Each structure stands twice: as structure tokens, then as C-alpha cells.
């Protein structure tokens, strides 16, 4: 038997400077898995939903390698902070702030995100 994904009209939106930008349908996000979204300026965002339905978005580019791979990383929590670990070198990035948990000098952009 094949189960159909839940359908919804809700869209995931990111705040970019002074406006909101729609990146995907909420139904495209599965807990523990990221989605890469192309932004108008050519950058990419990695968008995540956790098991409680909370949404997160950070820059998709791994600052240690330059590869756009953070959306493919493993998610988890460390001391109550949600993170994604880069699939390449395994550095962890806080999904709320973008701060690298393994190197305090490194940070990626974190976006305000909502479903409407």
C-alpha cells in the first residue's frame, strides 16, 4: 500500500530583508529531513521542520567546504538546541541562530521562517 503525503495549502516563507519569500509547500518538509530552496539572489536556504512542527531555515552553504549541502545533513539536539550536522565534515550548526557548535568563529545565516 502507498500512503499519500498529507496535502495542505500552507506555504513555508522566509524573511528576506524587508519582505517574505515563499520557498515550498509545508507538506514538502518531513521531520529530520531538510529541503534546499533557491532564493531570488541565487543563494540557497536549507529548510527544516522538527517533530513538533517548528520550522527552521539557515544558509545551505557549508562554510567549511563551500558546498551547498546543509539541507542533506543529519538533525538532532545538543543541550536542548536543535542543530544540523554537515554531511561532509560533520560540523554542527544551530538551527535557530546559525552558530557553528564546533567552532565559535563560524556562523551561517539563519532566517526567520513561518508557514502561512
From TrEMBL:
User: Mind telling me which CDD domains this protein's record contains?
Assistant: Rieske_NirD
Q: Report if keyword Iron is assigned.
A: yes
Pfam families the record matches: Rieske_2 (PF13806)
Keyword flag Secreted: no
Q: Where is the signal peptide?
A: none
Q: Which UniProt keywords apply?
A: 2Fe-2S, Iron, Iron-sulfur, Metal-binding, Nitrate assimilation, Oxidoreductase
Q: Which domain of life is it from?
A: Bacteria
* Start and end residues of each Rieske domain: 21-116
Output the PANTHER family linked to this UniProt entry. Answer: NITRITE REDUCTASE (NADH) SMALL SUBUNIT, PTHR40562
Stored NCBIfam families: nirD_assim_sml
Name this protein carries in UniProt: Nitrite reductase small subunit NirD
Q: Encoded by which gene? A: nirD
